[in-house]
Amino acid sequence: MAKIDEVAKAAGVSISTVSYALSGKRTISAETRRRIEQAVRELDYRPNAGARMLAGRRTNIFALTEPFRADTHAPAHMSFVLATSIAARRYDYDVLLLTDEEATAGMRRVASSGLADAVLVLDVAPDDERVGLARRLDIPSVFIGVPNDHEGLVCVDLDFEAAAALAVDHLAAAGHRSIGLVGHPPGAYLRSNFPPRVRAGFERRAAELGLDSSVERPEAGGTRGAAVRAAVEALLERGVTGLVLHCDDATHLAVLDALAARGLSVPGDVAVVSVGATFDTTSFQPPLDVIPLIPQASCDLAVDLAMQSMTPAPPAPGVRLIAPEYHEHGSVGEAADGSVAAHPPD
Amino acid sequence: MAKIDEVAKAAGVSISTVSYALSGKRTISAETRRRIEQAVRELDYRPNAGARMLAGRRTNIFALTEPFRADTHAPAHMSFVLATSIAARRYDYDVLLLTDEEATAGMRRVASSGLADAVLVLDVAPDDERVGLARRLDIPSVFIGVPNDHEGLVCVDLDFEAAAALAVDHLAAAGHRSIGLVGHPPGAYLRSNFPPRVRAGFERRAAELGLDSSVERPEAGGTRGAAVRAAVEALLERGVTGLVLHCDDATHLAVLDALAARGLSVPGDVAVVSVGATFDTTSFQPPLDVIPLIPQASCDLAVDLAMQSMTPAPPAPGVRLIAPEYHEHGSVGEAADGSVAAHPPD
DNA sequence: CGATATAGTCGAAGCGCTTCGACGACGAGC
DNA sequence: GCTCGTCGTCGAAGCGCTTCGACTATATCG
What we know:
The structure is a homodimer.
Chain A: H1 4-11, H2 15-23, H3 30-43, H4 49-56, E1 61-65, H5 74-89, E2 94-98, H6 102-112, E3 118-121, H7 129-136, E4 141-144, E5 154-158, H8 160-173, E6 178-182, H9 186-191, H10 195-208, E7 212-216, H11 226-237, E8 242-245, H12 249-261, E9 271-275, E10 289-291, H13 295-309, E11 318-322
Parallel strand pairs in A: 1-2, 1-3, 3-4, 4-5, 5-11, 6-7, 6-8, 8-9, 9-10
Helix pairs in contact in A: 1-2, 1-3, 5-13, 6-7, 8-10, 11-12
Chain A binds a DNA duplex through helix 2 and helix 4.
Pfam family, one (chains A, B): LacI
Protein name (chains A, B): LacI family transcriptional regulator
Keywords (chains A, B): DNA-binding, Transcription, Transcription regulation
């Protein structure tokens, strides 16, 4: 717990010189800097956080609001929290966690007590109460996810619509004329911002290409995949030969099981593409083509934007969509009827 | 962003009176307090965090170190993070998250820069590098989990040994003479502190009661429960009629599937007890008896101890084990051979 | 009834840092 | 040779709060 005056004394310079050497905000001679750095090392000096906040008007802390509701899909959300935390550390920022009811109230508290320099908003609902609050806050915020009303906000996310459209493109290019989407349960469409966007992208592109399309949104868990099985049955009965999966890993498994139970092979009889997965789709049997949701991509960008928000030239409000990437793993084959269209785009 | 001097002026008192009224550290007349509180409300005053830290030598922040490694079981760990955060808020404390590589290095950084008042250590490995560091830190720490070498540390956890023993007691009381443990995969016994404790409690009590006992530790995931099925087969071949489950939810499902596939019913043919689950075991088919791991219990106690660590009378180092509780849901029946022992111990 | 305790309030001294303005030294330009 | 600008450094003024000691007014006691 050495203090800056001890460093100054050890290096034979004044307190302000130490401060400038450490912050780099004024030029310091190489020799002086060397002596200061050595003193810092020898004394294991680390500036006091409170003093730094008070004098520097900067906390080096991001508040991360992530409700962690009971129905939150833990693995995906944990990935985002982790990715945010890692991204923040690149700029020497720490992450303060606001969960549960405090996810909203804490934003106000933390902002007006000057505990954080910016707020990162996770697990964004379509109609999120943190939207209005963010506009009123006197520190910047960045949303990872896109609420319905996002005017004036800085948002970052995978382009889920484009991702779904890209999946449809690949199925269409392989000759599939009737395709199905296995989506999240209906409840998720109210609580989360992205399931509706996947669905919209899926249906729009299918319509543009003149494909038959259907959507099923089975409840996950429950009686051991029965709902998923029923959903798959329903899609197959409508003649679907290409499947887009936007759901959790257990539902992925259940879909593959249901297909196997019907004696259908992937990609022989049915083509399958996973969209927006944060988990590894290559460990399924068979490995699945995927347009992944990469937390690191969103979180890195979000943190960059948060940093920029604190400069004199903050980023313009608006939605930054990350372009989807298609990863082939062999789960999409030519449609059985042979009426194959052109090659997959790109 | 009103400041304390504005509150003082609005209430017609001095700055120090406002401070004392807000902290309660000196007596303030009812009338004065009323005027101050009103001014605080009208100005929406909130003390500046940095100034408070600097002057008060207290951050109102707990550092929470939780590595979130790649193989971390997300739902369980998220529950602990959430429970800790909620418990901390009860004392007006915020939680700063240290993940990944920073889980260790961040402890040192946060402690010596005075960014946190105490450290809460999650996801404790048997041989955890944070143990040595915690001893050297100049702020207190509380471990949620018990490392092998815990001398001088304050630790909190479910009494996993007693929990496993309690499960064995119930199986024995129902007349089961040959019992099996389905534990976490072998790797988890190195990374986590509690699987070995469950195993030890299981084997010790089985030996004390003169039961035949076997342990299987199937790899989870992978080829769709094949390892779990094999483990169950192996146990059944050894004549096991009572099963203790200490594993993730997917493995629970796989075990029940494997039993069903053999045409065995629960509790008719096989008795099943789940130990240390953080998930709901009543949604299985059938609902399972359980000795749950309740994150809230551990985290509340941990936060209480952390608070007490900052008083002039810190808690004595040592392991605080939380007594296990048995919840009956009908998955344990009398053993088939009829040689039933006494009733389950309370 | 004077000595003493107690309640209620205030002023001022920090807490450890950042940053502004100033100043000396020195090289460049005229 | 003198002025000017730049580089490197320093002193000191805060940042907004907590807390110590002191002071007044009132209550308590022998």
